[in-house]
Amino acid sequence: MISLGDGVDPGWAGRSVVAHTGGSGGSGGYAEQVAVAAGELIPVPGELGLPEAAALLHDGSTAMGLLHQTEVKPGEQVLVTAAAGGMGVLLVQLARAAGGRVIGAARGRRKLAMVGDAGADAVVDYSEPGWAGQVRELTAGHGPDVVFDGAGGPLGRSAFEIIAPGGRFSAHGMSGGGFAPLDQAEARRRGVTVNGIGAYEPEAFRRRAAAALAEAAAGRLSPVIGQEYPLAGAADAHTALESRLAVAKTLLRP
């Protein structure tokens, strides 16, 4: 915190904080310095670095909200697609901490190795034919009880097709070109609950973001920063994301 406006609690001065730069709407922006309403500020625990806090601001809050919404139970089989993304890595950790047996699906050896390091019990490469069959085999033919789908598109559809009867399908990503095309009638017939990412009220977002920061400060949640770029190289960062060369979270530094 560099400076304070009129009427702002002086206790904020000099503190490490994170906030959405687009206000409550969270539209974001790229800048070295920004003015943010005091009510939008989230304090960063002293045990946590600012890069890690920035990596957790959005994905940490959303991941904790998805886990709360989906309620992974001990012993359940959990599939996380796009598991090497910033959100996917966190969902792997959170689902495993909840007692789930986690299968992480990603593309290529580098990403699969990172997903394994994050705590996945098993990994599959969804760029290979028959990957969904591998997941079914890993669950002894049962299929996953829970799917956190960060891939969307045909990959998400394949994950939906193997989910166990009565399972929960949580869609939060569309790196495959759109959210997974799901048949709601089929979901009802199989007793599968389908949830989207939804929209969180600003206060709920900040509460969950603060909880994610606290978990990280306590060593129970570890964001993975795969690459960093200078602010002037923002276009290069976008190119890496669009070409799928990036892993986990990408940060811009001033």
Radius of gyration: 19 Å
Give me the CATH fold name of the largest domain: Quinone Oxidoreductase, Chain A, domain 1
Q: How large is the share of residues in beta strands?
A: 15-25%
Global outline: globular
Number of folding domains?
2
Unreliable residue runs: none
- Using the coordinates above, name the CATH class of the largest domain: Alpha Beta
Distance between the termini: 15 Å
What structural class is derived from the secondary structure elements?
Answer: alpha/beta
- Helix fraction bin: 25-40%
**Helix tally?**
8
- At CATH level 2, the architecture of the largest domain is Alpha-Beta Complex
Per-chain topology:
Layout: E1 17-18, E2 42-43, H1 50-70, E3 77-81, H2 86-97, E4 101-106, H3 109-117, E5 122-125, H4 131-138, E6 146-149, H5 153-162, E7 168-171, H6 184-190, E8 193-195, H7 202-217, E9 225-230, H8 234-242, E10 249-253
Parallel strand pairs: 3-4, 3-6, 4-5, 6-7, 7-8, 9-10
Antiparallel strand pairs: 1-2
